[in-house]
Specification:
The complex is a heterodimer of chains A (about 250) and B (about 300). Chain A has about 250 residues and is mostly helical. Helices cover about 75% and strands about 0% of the residues of chain A. In chain A, strands 1-2 form a two-stranded antiparallel ribbon. The longest helix of chain A is centred in the first third of the chain and has 32 residues. The radius of gyration of chain A is 18 Å and the shape is globular. Chain B has 2 domains: about 160 residues, Rossmann fold; about 70 residues, no CATH class. Chain B has 10 helices and 14 strands. Chain B has a 6-stranded mixed β-sheet with strand order 6-7-8-3-9-10, with helices on both faces. A 4-stranded antiparallel β-sheet of chain B has the order 2-1-4-5, with helices on one face. In chain B, strand 7, helix 6 and strand 8 form a beta-alpha-beta unit. In chain B, helix 3 crosses helix 4. Chain B starts with a strand and ends with a helix. Classes of the chains: A mainly alpha (about 250), B alpha/beta (about 300).
């Protein structure tokens, strides 16, 4: 069933497995370094009843899935465009909507794989980490966040004409949004109006819902964050399909 | 049902200044099943644009293309399944092994997982690449990469295989291998359409040809019929000294000269021999070469 779509999905999964040191372990090493620094500097501090290191850790895991899910399709597609490999997708009898879905699910797979490996490797160093507070919410957070930023990566991978555009997006849009999303601090502690402005940063809701699922701590109503993620996923699905169709269709 | 039917197709591109350029101009062509068909023309003639429209990558501005009765513009997912295209450029996942390249690409054409490995093994044996199965694609030589491109296009067993300049820039030995592969595929019932600007290649392989220049179809049909048409009533000859005064009615076609038979072959040959005498390097009235036909049709 839909063999062609799953073959494209499997090819994209194989691609990141081929370069696993770069795609999987590189971001995990970054997380390890963050934890090392924050562990030393913030030892003993708490946010509410949550140790600060646990607070940062859950934010870093959310940042990890956002970054890796976005990077996987966006880089793959820009590289394909630059090497001329895009013709493989254009010639194959795969309807455009399935192309987007295959890339987005491959991104989700990389995001979830990276997070799971990161957790296995680092959770032992985090205080007060036990069974996730809301396991079902955690599954939803992983699935929706991976898919959401996978779809954004697909859309941007098709829109970006070269690496400069991709680097621009990463440096000037994605990274500031991630760093201002409450990964390292609770947005409620920001002075007005920035605490309100932060609520309009969509990544804040991914970080918040992810943290809530693991620890039970939430900056804003977790249901609100969940609905924002759900709504944004629907919008990004439409945007992704529009960009894929626009780029794959005959001109 | 015809494998390929091209009806009055035109493709217009715009340059950055907004000026229009007709890459393909009102081309109509029918390709019959089971044939090897050559699409010939110089670089920039419009061959690849036509191939890209057949492959479902470009949409004609005018006209239609049907593959096995299906309109390419309306049912491209179905038509793409029926054809295998070998693009001019070598493109593949260079980090993958040969087997991986073929495994995933054939999957994208719907070949079931259970069948893929057996098909890959058979095709690689056919192409003399069986000992490269687990080699990374990037480590293959240029010729092997070219063969791998062919393997990608035929794994899903298409009814029509389209090869865009398959022998461009390859050595004589590899060219022979690609020719024999094309002939073998054809013998198994696959219709072949290939583009080339090597005219001797088309003479070796094709039953039928289409000549295209400046986006326009200038001649199409059975190669033998075209050769007969262009060789009848003419004598072809070459001269040692090309500055010699020409005989009235003689025209220059490439390195050759052509003279229309006005009386009969013997009388006109005698007239030429008498005029040019020992300046004649060669003289014949045999079938015209494709190169000769092409030069004549393009007024070179």
């Amino acid at each position: 069933m839909q063999t062609n779509m799953w073959a494209l999905y499997a090819r994209e999964v194989k691609r990141f497995q081929k370069i696993w040191i770069d795609t999987v372990f590189n971001p995990i090493v970054s997380i390890g370094l963050y934890l090392g620094v924050f562990g030393i500097v913030t030892s003993g501090r708490e946010i509410g009843s949550l140790p600060y290191l646990t607070f940062v850790y859950t934010g870093l895991l959310a940042m990890l899935i956002v970054n890796t899910s976005f990077s996987n399709p966006s880089f793959a597609l820009v590289i394909a465009r630059n090497l001329g490999n895009m013709i493989d997708i254009q010639l194959a009898p795969i309807p455009a909507w399935r192309i987007g879905v295959a890339y987005a699910f491959a991104a989700l797979t990389r995001g979830v794989t990276t997070v799971l490996i990161a957790v296995v490797g680092t959770v032992w160093f985090i205080p007060a980490m036990g069974i996730p507070a809301h396991p079902l919410a955690l599954v939803a957070a992983l699935f929706l966040t991976g898919l959401e930023f996978g779809m954004l990566g697909v859309a941007f991978g098709f829109l970006a004409k070269n690496f400069e555009a991709l680097t621009f997006m990463n440096t000037f849009v994605m990274q500031p949004m991630i760093f201002l999303a409450g990964v390292f601090y609770p947005v409620a502690t920001l002075p007005a109006p920035w605490n309100t402005v932060s609520l309009f940063n969509p990544i804040h809701h991914n970080v918040n819902f992810f943290r809530y699922a693991i620890t039970g701590y939430s900056d804003v109503n977790p249901l609100f964050s969940f609905l924002v993620i759900l709504g944004l996923s629907a919008v990004l699905f439409a945007v992704m399909q529009w960009t894929v169709v626009r780029n794959i269709k005959m001109k | 049902m015809l494998p390929l039917k091209i009806n009055n197709v035109t493709k217009i591109f715009k340059n950055p200044k907004g000026q229009e350029f007709k890459a393909v101009d009102g081309v109509s062509l029918d390709i019959e099943p089971g044939k090897i068909y050559g699409l010939l023309g110089p670089n920039g003639a419009g061959k690849s644009t036509l191939i890209n429209m057949i492959g479902g990558l470009l949409l004609p501005n005018q006209g239609s293309i049907e593959l096995f009765g299906l309109d390419v513009a309306k049912e491209s997912s179905k038509t793409k399944q029926l054809i295998g295209v070998v693009p001019q450029e070598i493109v593949m996942e260079m980090a993958f092994t040969v087997e991986e390249v073929l495994y995933y690409f054939s999957g994208m054409y719907g070949v079931p997982r259970s069948e893929r490995k057996a098909r890959i093994k058979a095709v690689l044996e056919d192409l003399g690449l069986e000992d490269k199965t687990h080699e990374r694609a990037r480590n293959l030589s240029g010729g092997m990469k070219r063969r791998l491109m062919v393997a990608k296009a035929i794994l899903h067993r298409p009814k029509l295989v389209i090869l865009d300049e398959p022998t461009a820039g390859v050595d004589v030995s590899l060219r022979q291998k690609i020719w024999s592969l094309v002939q073998r595929l054809n013998a198994e019932g696959t219709t072949i359409l290939f583009t080339t600007h090597y005219l001797e290649e088309a003479e070796q392989l094709c039953e039928s040809i289409a000549l295209i220049n400046h986006g326009k179809l200038i001649k199409s049909g059975r190669l033998k019929d075209i050769q007969q048409e262009f060789s009848k009533n003419t004598i072809h000859f070459e001269l040692f000294d090309r500055t010699a005064a020409p005989l009235a009615g003689v025209s220059e076609v490439g390195v050759e000269y052509e003279y229309p038979i006005t009386a009969d072959l013997a009388t006109d040959m005698a007239k030429l021999t008498s005029h040019y005498n020992h300046n004649l390097k060669s003289i014949r009235s045999e079938a015209a070469s494709l190169e000769h036909i092409f030069l004549k049709l393009t007024n070179h």
